[in-house]
Amino acid sequence: MHTPFVSQRLSLFSSVGKNAPPRHLGTRLNADGEFLHELGNTVVCHLVEGSTTQSAIIKARQQLLDMPEASAHLAFTPVSSLHMTVFQGIIERRRTWPYWPKEMPQDASIDQMTTFYRERLQNFPKLPSFSMEVTGVTPNGLVMKGVTAEDDRIVAEWRNAFAEAFGYRHPDHETYEFHITFAYIIRWFDPACLPLWQRALDRCLDELRSAAPIIEMRPPAFCEFSDMKHFEELIVFDPI
Question: Which of 22, 114, 206, 210 could form a disulfide with 185, with the two C-beta atoms 3.0–4.6 Å apart?
Answer without folding.
Answer: 22
